[in-house]
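TASK: fixed-backbone design
INPUT:
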């Protein structure tokens, strides 16, 4: 690597690294927000990091003002496409998350969880795990119902057996 190339790499790393640090602060501030907003923020930071590296190195490469404007215009178009794509991905993830949340709410109300087979792999895996948990809870509820029925039968039998000898002692035939 030549000295000029090393200088360009260091300038690009410094400028894009600065944007990356600002991006880390931004993501930390937004950490409890919507996935749609977070994906857009990630895309913006990535695009700004590329733009910052281009701007930082443009002077070192002695690019003319006109060429710099053309590079910036092309970068802005690419940034717009990238941001639109990030927003679309964020909207898809948010919609999948909303569907999973609604199904989990229905499950929490005592229903059965139905697998949602759409969205990112992580949300599909979570959906499958919730469905498996739903099946285990259903089995547990059935076992609890059987145990409660058995307990009631036992109490009924014991109560009957305890009353029967007393009834025999109170009868007029045995009471004399």
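OUTPUT:
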């Amino acid at each position: 690597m030549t000295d000029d190339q090393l200088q360009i790499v260091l300038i690009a790393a410094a400028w894009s690294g600065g944007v990356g640090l600002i991006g880390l602060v931004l993501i930390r501030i937004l950490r409890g927000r919507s996935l749609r907003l977070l994906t857009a923020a990630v895309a913006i930071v990535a695009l700004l990091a590329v733009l910052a590296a281009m701007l930082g190195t443009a002077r070192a490469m002695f690019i003319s003002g006109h060429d710099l404007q053309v590079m910036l215009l092309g970068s802005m178009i690419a940034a717009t496409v990238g941001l639109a794509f990030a927003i679309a991905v964020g909207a898809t993830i948010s919609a999948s998350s909303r569907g999973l949340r609604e199904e989990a709410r229905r499950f929490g109300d005592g229903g059965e969880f139905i697998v949602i087979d759409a969205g990112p792999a992580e949300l599909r895996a979570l959906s499958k795990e919730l469905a498996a948990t739903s099946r285990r809870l259903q089995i547990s509820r059935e076992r609890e119902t059987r145990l409660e029925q058995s307990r009631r039968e036992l109490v009924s039998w014991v109560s009957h057996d305890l009353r029967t000898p007393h009834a025999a002692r109170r009868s007029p035939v045995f009471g004399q």
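COMMENT: Residues 66 and 72 are 10 Å apart (CA to CA).
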